[in-house]
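Today's session is about reading a structure prediction critically. Students often jump straight to the picture, but the first step is always the sequence itself: look for stretches that repeat, for charged clusters, for runs of hydrophobic residues. Only then move on to the predicted structure, which in these notes is written as discrete structure tokens rather than atom positions. Here is the chain we will use throughout the hour.
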Amino acid sequence: MELILYTKNGCGLCDEVKVHLSRLAGAYPHRLTEIDITSDRAIFEQYHFVIPVVQIGEVELQAPITAAQLEAALATAH
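Below is the predicted structure for this chain, in token form.
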């Protein structure tokens, strides 16, 4: 399963999401691609107020993201 995390350096909420995803990896194997929003102006303008943003299939979660929300989205996409 492919996941995308929109993030940037120094984002504490982004780090929390990575910890949650790491803990869920055993039950929901996935490959995480991180995209630094500061590397692309259009992406930055779209997401700079709502990171972290996780895309799991058709589902997009925006901050704040809980472990329960991640697990539900992973279960749906799995």
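Discussion point for the tutorial: The first strand starts at residue 2 and ends at 7.
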